Amino acid sequence: MKNRMTTQPLKLDGNAIAATIKAEVAAEVDVLRRNGITPGLAVVLVGTDPASQIYVRSKVKTCGDLGIFSEMLTPPESVTTDDMLAIIAELNAREDIDGILIQLPLPKHVDTKRLLESVDPSKDVDGFHPVNVGRVQSGQRALAPCTPAGIIEILKRSQLAIAGQQAVVVGRSDIVGKPAAMMLLNESATVTICHSRTRDLAAITRHADILVAAIGRPAFITEDMVKPGAVLIDVGINRVEDAALVARWFPGNASRKESMEKRGSTVVGDIDPRAFAISGAYTPVPGGVGALTIAMLMQNTLTAAKARRGLV
Ligand code: NDP
Fold first, then answer.
1. With a 6 A CB cut-off, is 196 part of the ligand 1 pocket?
2. Angle, CA of 172, 20 and 280, to the nearest 5°
3. Would you say the CB of residue 236 lies under 6 angstroms from ligand 1?
4. Active site residue 166
5. What is the CATH number of domain 35-121?
6. Considering only CA atoms, which of 261, 173, 170 is closest in space to residue 220?
7. pLDDT band at 7, cuts 50/70/90?
8. Of 196, 200, 221, 294, which is best to mutate to test ligand 1, by the most ligand atoms within 8 angstroms of its C-beta?
9. Segments of the chain assigned to CATH 3.40.50.720
């Protein structure tokens, strides 16, 4: 275990790791293209939600940067489940499309579960189809969900041990908590999953060698809930507008103060940043796990393109 008096916690640079993964993907895409294969991603964005538009634009731009063909489909907010099923059926059948991403959330009147299940599992680059969920669970090769896959990449590429470690995942959502727990288990961690009904959460998190927070509550995991020397993986993305809270969580941090003054808000993870000081390593927010998500989407698109042609 690290000695908290003498060892500086290691800040895990998600941006740098994401850049490395993207460079690796770009190099492989280049080889494929020279052999006449261009991986293709279709992104379906329903309606005009500003946050979804930003995410989608960023995904499309990254495709362009890496040599991946991308196509954006933008059905109106009024689209029906049947319309969407028809769009997906067409994309499933297209030879030039290797990955299909349906940007969530969808309007309430659309049956999201049915749509996600209608995506061809071999093109399911978000890893949400039950076939891929099952493959992850049984430790088979799969298109794994991007955020949990990013967590594993951060740990492995930072040479942080997973096998034999006590991993505690706080959060049990289908897109982050549960698959993250499964993937840590597949790497031979001893995994505990916690949620809103967990009794004495702090007593459990204090045993974690690897603590993954995927809760959606700013600075929820406090220093007293963390074992000194633990690896802290902060998945949370929470926009906070309360300047007094931000000043308390980031004492003397000039860039946070500036962000509050300029934009009136800042993005905070699920772990109180003051807890990072006693950790062995931690992912910052922003610039940690979030930075990996698009890189993993690109990797999944490449994997899908290769797998569909029998190249992996
Ligand atoms: P969900 O709201 O789907 O799940 C939150 C989980 O946290 C639930 O399992 C819930 O438990 C648990 N929880 C809530 N309150 C408590 C509590 N008091 N004690 C213990 N557990 C609690 O969120 P997501 O999994 O989708 O996202 C989690 C966070 O990660 C969010 O901040 C989100 O923005 C971020 N995120 C980041 C991504 C990235 O790219 N970095 C991608 C996806 C999400 P229960 O099941 O009992 O309700």
1. yes
2. 55
3. yes
4. no
5. 3.40.50.10860
6. 170
7. confident
8. 196
9. 144-292
Select which of 98, 123, 124, 126 is catalytic: 126
Phi, psi of 79 (to 5 degrees): -60, 145
140-171, pLDDT tens digit by residue?
999 999 999 999 999 999 999 999 999 999 99
Q: What is the mean pLDDT of the chain?
A: 96
Residue among 103, 128, 215, 293 to mutate when testing ligand 1 (max atoms within 8 A of CB): 215
Tell how strand 281-282 and strand 10-11 pair up: parallel
Residue 6's pLDDT band (cuts 50, 70, 90): low
Distance, CA of 268 to CA of 262 (rounded, Å): 16
CB atoms within 10 A of CB 78: 10
In whole angstroms, give the CA distance from residue 114 to residue 96: 24
Contact 87, 297 (CB under 8 A): no
Instruction: Give start-end residues of each CATH 3.40.50.10860 domain in the chain.
Output: 35-121
Ligand 1 closest atom vs CA 172: 9
Contact (CB, 8 A) for 269 and 247: no
CATH fold for domain 144-292: Rossmann fold (3.40.50)
Of the candidates 103, 209, 272, 299, the residue annotated as catalytic is: 103
218 CA from centroid of ligand 1 (Å): 11
Q: Which residues of 87-105 are buried (b: 16+ CB within 10 A; e: fewer)?
A: bbeebeeeeebbbbbbbee
Cα–Cα distance between 171 and 221 in angstroms, integer?
12
Residue 198 beta carbon below 6 angstroms from any ligand 1 atom: yes
- Whole-structure pTM over 0.85, yes or no? yes
